[in-house]
Amino acid sequence: MQRSAAVALPKRRKPTSRGTLGLLLLALPGVVWFLIFAYGPMAGLVVAFKDFNISQGIFGSAWNGLDNFKYFLASGDAPRIVFNTVVLNTLFLGASLLAGLLLALMLNEIRGHFYRRFMQSTIFFPYFVSPIIIAIMLQVVLSGVGGRGGLLNNLLSVVDLPQVNWYTEPGAWPWILTIVKVWQLGGYTSVIFLAAITSIPEEVYEAAAIDGASRARMALSVTTPLLLPTVGILVVLGIGRIFFGDFATIYAIVGDNGTLFPTTDVIDTYVFRSLRTIGDFGTTAAIGLFQSVVGFVFVTAAVLVQRRVDRESSIL
Amino acid sequence: MSTTITGRTQTITDLDAAAVLDDTQSTRRSARPKRRRPARLEPFTLFSYVCVTLFGLFCLIPLWMIIAGSFTDESSLARTGYSLWPAPFSTAAYQMLFSGGALVTSYGASLFITIVGTALSLSCTASLAWVIARRLPRISRPLTIFAYIPMLFTGGLVPLYLLVTQVLSLNNNWFAVILPVMLAPFLIFVAVSFFRQLPEEILDSARIDGAGELRIFFQIVIPLSKPILAVLGLFYAVTYWNEWFMALLFISDPSLYPLQLTLQNLIANVTNAASLPGATVSQAAAPIYQLRFAMTVLTIAPILLAYPFAQRFFVKGLTLGASKG
Predict the structure, then answer these.
(1) pLDDT tens for residues A28-74?
(2) What dihedral do alpha carbons B127, B178, A249, A143 form, nearest 10°?
(3) Is A12 close to B200, i.e. CB distance below 8 A?
């Protein structure tokens, strides 16, 4: 629908050559930024194939072929961080989509205009909370003053369960981080779904009502199936980003707490830590290149799939 | 049957109104007839009210705990743990923060980064997006691809670090926080899709009056695009205000720390220290907890204060971006 409208628009007029010059000037700052900060680092990836030495610079350092990659693979960390990245991202994606979908379905039930707006704003808010503040909030929940207690442990003691020192329990962290992600992104995702719900024609619900469907039945058998294309696109986009951990949130929460690395160390945090502590630019760049290339394959595949789906459903 | 007819007439009037506004977003929304209020409260609706309210509380309680904690006397925080209501009430942490200089310098740094950054981001995003939206032969299409590729492939952390520290020598410079995150390709494309909806007639009439391309951009396009510029500006401003990673990488001088980094310094290692079995109450008795909470409140305060007014723009920006893919 939108596509055909765009075609029907009259063609923009051709500018004069002086006008073109003006427009090029307008684009210049943005283009320069892209060249330096987006394309510059891509060129800088040659560091991955070099024995980097700060005094000799990026282009002066000697080549060392694939040594950096071999070193990374030999360290034995590769399987763990790749596994963690994929597992955590899958959990985050699945949980936040499910939460967003359920929240949207339920928000859609709320009739009071004011209350609905209020709740939507409330659950959207965590999206704007910075990772550092999330980390502080999580400490309140998981460990109280001086490392004892915390909200969760207080609740556990109410039902007579033993206290847990969460910051030394790596096994619990994939789930804790997933809950954090639901908190952070549930409302955000629900806003996207609600926008899609608004475009569902009312007639469909009227037909369902005539057939005697309850509100629950409508949500399950009318709204949900009609939202599936949106879910599909979000899943595809999420899979495209599956090799890029959410560095800021994970690092802000876990930091340098080595006890939790077995389950929380992802590619991005690993790269950052090796850069800081070891200062081995070549090896870290090699990991980064590996991530970018695999990520590129996934993102591109995702975009191609999305384009194909998009042609059929104009919701997203 | 009668509902269908009323439904249709309503649609037509709404379409007319929308055509005047020339806003496809509102067409879609207002073209729907209003949903009727169900006669009785169904179980699922009730269930929804309860669940949404609970999730809302789940979203707000951590924030409230921080605010309450920031007003609770440190010794009672250590003795009885956190509570929903600050007792005994104490503003000691805020007094300490306001009397010390660190807060003021951090606020200054964050304000500089946010204001200068947002201004730069917004002007570059709008101008580049307009050139793309202008559909110039042989220019707009390559520019689209040029701005799109970085969404697919990135150089990663190490080359960026080398670029900023070695090539540009921006260590301990606030621009090292601003520049790497200055443009978001996604927001550029959001702006492009908005610009493409501007009515061509207005631009044409300006051309007939002899306005040049730059004049059209600055005097016609920008004023007509205030809503989208507000959305983009807010998104960029929040990004800058919350930006912490770039500061962590490039700013090592504590007198230049933005708020988020100062805050992180307050919690760094406390996580680990707190998790050690040997952590004692006396260690915790230092006013560090109340201070951290007060600092957190002051860091999030601008967002909290602006949010009630700004949130509809965020929702709008998100749905606009989402509906255009």
Answers:
(1) 999 999 999 999 999 888 888 888 877 777 777 778 878 888 888 88
(2) -140
(3) yes
> Can you read off the two tokens belonging to residue A287?
């990991």
pLDDT, tens only, A183-224: 999 999 999 899 889 888 989 999 999 998 888 899 999 999
- Beta bridge partner(s), residue A62: A51
What is A66-312's CATH number, 1.20.1540.10, 3.30.70.100, 3.90.1150.10, 1.10.3720.10? 1.10.3720.10
**Chain A residues within an 8 Å CB radius of B207:** 13
Q: What is the mean pLDDT of chain B?
A: 79
Rounded mean pLDDT, A227-248:
84
Whether residue B173 lies inside any domain: the answer is yes
Complex ipTM > 0.95: no
Count of A-B CB contacts under 8 Å: 346
| Residue B59 predicted with pLDDT over 90 | yes
Q: Residue B18: which domain range? A: 1-30
The CA distance from A49 to A191, in Å, is 44
CB spacing of A315 vs B323 below 8 angstroms: yes
Q: Which residue has the higher pLDDT, A146 or A233?
A: A233
Q: CB-based contacts of B96: which residues, under 8 Å, 6+ apart?
A: B287, B291, B294
Residues of chain A positioned with their CB less than 8 A from the CB of B66? 133, 136-137, 140
Find the angle CA(A101)-CA(A170)-CA(B281) to the nearest 5 degrees. 110
Q: Residue B128: which CATH number?
A: 1.10.3720.10
Domain-located, residue B310: no
Tell me if residue B116 falls in helix, strand or coil: helix
